[in-house]
Amino acid sequence: MRKVDCRSSDFLGTFCNVALSMVIVVFFAMTGRLHAQTQNSVTASDSTATRVMACTACHGERGQGSRDDYFPRLAGKPTGYLYNQLVAFRDGQRKYPPMNYLLAYLPDSYLREMADYFAAQQTPFPPLPKPDVGPQVLALGERLVLKGDDARHVPACIACHGASLTGMSPDIPGLLGLHSKYISAQLGATRFGTRVPIKPNCMQQLTTRLSEEDITAVSAYLSSLPAPANPAPAPAGSLKLALTCEGLETK
Ligand code: HEC
Ligand code: HEC
Question: Does ligand 1 have an atom closer than 6 angstroms to the CB of 175?
Answer without folding.
Answer: no
